[in-house]
Write a structure and sequence with these properties.
53 residues, mainly alpha, rod-shaped
Length: 53
């Protein structure tokens, strides 16, 4: 049998985990986007393409 205290603590933990997952996901997406932008700025030969920036 769950007491109200245990239940609210579990809800809090779930909320923290959910927030952390969202944060990690957001950071990952942001980093992915930056990586793509970096790739786009380089020519296929691996030289920096100044015209692209």
């Amino acid at each position: 049998m769950n007491t109200k205290n245990e239940e609210s603590r579990k809800n809090e933990e779930d909320a923290v985990i959910k927030r952390r997952k969202l944060q990690v996901e957001a950071n990952w997406k942001k980093r992915k986007k930056e990586d793509l932008l970096c790739i786009l700025h380089f020519s296929p030969h691996g030289e920096y393409d100044a015209e692209a920036s």
